[in-house]
Amino acid sequence: MPATMYDALPYRSVARTATYVDRIAAVGRLLGIDTADSNHCRVLELGCGDGGNLIPMAVSLPGSEFVGIDLARSAIERGIAAASAIGASNVSLHQADIAGIGDMGEFDYVIAHGVYSWVPPEVRAALLRVIREHMRPAGLAFVSYNAMPGDHIRGVVRQMMRMHTAGIEDPRKKLEQARALLQMLEQAPGDAGDVYRPLLRSEVGRALQSSDELLFHDDLADISQPFFFSEFMAAAQAAGLQFASEAVFHSMNLSTLPPDLGRLLTDLAARDVIAKEQYLDFLTCRGFRQTLLCQREVELRRDVDAERISQFRFFSEAQRTEPDAGQPGVAFRHRNGSALRTDHALTIRAMEALLAANPRSVPFGELAEGAGATSPEDREALANVLFQAFSVGVIELRLFEPRIMLELGERPEASPWARYTAASGRSANLYHELIELDEPAKRLLPLADGSRTLAELATAAELDLPATTRTFQELAKLALLVG
């Protein structure tokens, strides 16, 4: 196959938390789909790049099989080398066109992150066709794409950069000129009350902070097509697929809207969930979507009950905050901006138990027992509150608990992916979250293969023992160490 622009300027893929198979499986179970166990499934990633999203999942879920395809030969070669270096035998990467992947069998989960908006119409149609034909009946597919109306301003800046760099073939020179234009746009004058300058500055600031590879392949790409949600779903439905959910479940939440507006969209959702989501995009100016699709024959159950909630494990990294003046109860706030306020003693005890267990997740039965939910009525009330907390983004649902180190041992062992990628300054943990690493962590992680004591690691990394111990205690909390 001919070389692609991804061969000319490599795009280093990284872990995308929303694509984590266990998260996707949990949302499916919540909707009544009998999704495959995340550690006993087959996963296909379309446009996998160099495997930076797929390989760490294979490390976290060693009982599953992961297959990736990408058109860029150099990316596939890097990914194969990485998988081989860490011994990830449950992942295979192939250079292939989405329209011609061949007979690879059926998959429980299909991932297509950062592809749909950046390929021509015939490839978009092929992508949806591959999902339909290769996804098992109870499977789920993750598809991300630029969304309207939020992408409109980004599109204006994108068009300016493309116009300014038209005719420049060399990727580095193209990037140099694109950044020069952005720096000029930063200085655009504006009068008091002018709406153009703040919008422009916000988008220009985002673009200037983007890496070269992101700016080149996303903003300067020949194709970067946004879609209204209803447009995307019309194409998906024509391919035999239906809307299940957004991968980030709390992005569908209506609690932040004014009450009358929230009730209006709730009523609309009961009749037409796609229309509800489209109008929510209008109201929030959403610019990017991460949509989960299932086969059209699947019967979804959106009326979540306590019995379904009780099958999950629960995790939270929210923080308890002091009560606001005049506000009853206790607030638990997440760094994503979401919050849960309650004066229900059972709920408060359950939330505090989750925070104490971090980074481990807690099964519903254990959480209910620890919180004192002994009666059926208490367990049902707790389940309903946990669903509310999940719906607003304060807690997460999990099905599988990876083999993480909770107590620091004498010979700490980092996950193979953490050891392999530490030098880059960031790595995916065993929950598929991207973690930024400080200098001590960058020096220690590659050495932590389980063969060295803490004292030996300190000597090898040229750090003192207390600093080494503190670093590994933090790495354990970040779920980067294998138990």
Oligomeric assembly: single chain
What strand order characterises the main sheet? Answer: 3-2-1-4-5-7-6
What would you report as the Rg, rounded to the nearest angstrom? 23 Å
- The overall average pLDDT, rounded, is 93
Number of strands: 15
Shape assignment = globular
Query: Could you estimate the helical fraction of the residues in percent?
Result: 40-55%
Give a short account of the largest sheet: 7 strands, mixed
Q: What is the name of the CATH superfamily of the largest domain?
A: Vaccinia Virus protein VP39
> pLDDT under 50 segments (min length 5)?
none
- Please state the structural category: alpha/beta
Strand fraction equals 15-25%
Write the CATH architecture name of the largest domain: 3-Layer(aba) Sandwich
CATH classification, class level of the largest domain: Alpha Beta
Count up the helices.
20
